Request: fold
Amino acid sequence: MSNLDGTLIGERYRLETQVGSGGMSTVHRALDEKLQRAVAVKLMHTTTAADADHLERFRREARAVASLSNPNLVGVIDAGEEGGRPYIVLEYIDGETLKARIRRNGRLEVSEAVAYAIEIARGLTAAHAAGIVHRDVKPQNVLIDADGRAKVTDFGIARSLHEDGLTADGRVIGTTDYVSPEQALGESVGRESDIYSLGVVLFEMLTGRVPFSADNPVAVAMCHVRNPMPDVRALRPEVSATVASILDRCTAKDPAERYPNFEALTADLEAALALEASRSGQAVGQATSVLESLPPQARDKVHLGASRRGPRLLWTGGLIILLAALGVFAWSGLHRGTGVRGSSPAGLGPIRLASEAAHPYDPFGDSTEHNAESILMLDGDPNTAWASESYFSGLQKGGVGVAIDAAPGARAAAVEIRTSTPGFTASIWTANGQLPQNNGPNAGPAGGAPASDPPAGWSRVSAPQKVTARDLVRIAKPTAPQRWYLIWVTALASDQKQVKLNEVRLLR
Reply:
């Protein structure tokens, strides 16, 4: 029981019980006597109110949250001062924090974790649209209401994107379990920092643990700067490559390699949730409600419920499960040490790809190249291979290749190729958005393009080179993440009639 219980604040809010406490303030459940409803009153400590910086930060929180209105943000109702102590009145959430839920339940179902990440991202989208960076995104600052909805709260160290912060350079602001590398180094903090922190929250929801632990908070912060993120699929293999890829991009050390904004992140999370629901045939917890709120393009990918089940659902679900199983098999092979995936060149690490990420690409032929075998170049087994068609008089066309889908996008530094038909000539090209379309059956190079170029829409990022049995093709690092990486073959070895790709990896 708090000694403030029963105190009337602002001649309107009767404090009933303390429900939380922090370094700057305490939070009380209170009764709004004017409207006869429960509210939360955040009351600054007396000693903290004497500090000008802390006082301004508290007032800033009131101004920041007052300008926001979103179902996934805890709304501000009122603000003022009582006896020299500033206070903020917020909507009262009768529920628990996301941190408490994780502690109580352990790791969440994958679809539910993705659903909560979507709701948090939606709330932070509204904050960023108003020019507010949260800077302390963590599960302790996410409340789960009685309906299961996630609401972001505690903008206590938020600042405007258009003004300097109160904290001097070199000091870490935020909770170090979730702090971005640039935040840990005391550097300028922008939207990308909140995206990183949400990525860490997603990691914790999926695994039940934070990524780094150390003897003190500063050491944890330095782990975010120096150490690679633990592999979420090694800790939980059923996490799809799509979700793992989203998490990887959120938590990239370089802010430029993360999502540019929460809108882009939310779109990928929504697509991932639709995939997860279709793959499992059901949704649990908050995933059910979030699925209903997906935009049409994502919702159309969901096939749930007996009324919508039929041959299409069974076939699609079976294919997804099969491909997922192949992906898990490949992942298991990696950790058993089989295949080329057991090791990486010094300084480079693999970019996770979906098991179905390889797409044979034949724009100047019949548009097919043994497509059903494409998964064999990503299965972790160097004894299996995708093979092109046989060409007994050379390619006799602009080229042929394989497009690797790195959705939602990645900045690869190299492509590692293992082949049992060494000596062919290839280069690497990149593209974003939709896969540049084939020109149609038996079409030749379009628009007078040189015979060695793929169709318009690709950008070359490596010089052509002869590929050895196990080769590393270094590429010019793109300025932005790229979705598609094309291995474009323009000549065969003199003693070969086809190209075989036993294993392909994108490395960063």
